[in-house]
Amino acid sequence: MRSLELKIPPLALVVLFAGLMWLLARLTPGLNYAVPWRQVLVATLSALAVLIILAGVASFRRASTTVNPLNPESSSALVVSGIYRVARNPMYLGFLLLLAAWALLLGNLTVLLLLPVFVWYMNRFQILPEERALTSLFGNDYTNYCARVRRWL
Q: By Cβ atoms counted within 10 A, which residue in 12, 14, 44, 94 is the most buried?
């Protein structure tokens, strides 16, 4: 299974999951549901997601370290400030919130099943390999950070 680690860029994975969610919603129209204020909720959740993602990117830029998720071993700084005081993976959290907003917009119960699959995939094939690389690079500083800050929220 290590052959799948760090292979699919997270943004591409978001697009893939969004497409699967759309397809699943089209295949199961009987499981559609209505949500009052759907557009407002989707817009709010999407805006929050984008703000979280941008805060993560900005923290990396301020630290002059890479935002390339496929090469965590090229990280030049351990970022523990800003949004990283709250979550170790805010960009991935933002991606999850975007997918949740998309699920809400689609209004279909079956698409909700893909949200935990996205989290599982990210944990197994993206985050765990990143954590190994960061532990190798930053040692106790990183393990202490992990003890203080949760992976997602």
A: 94
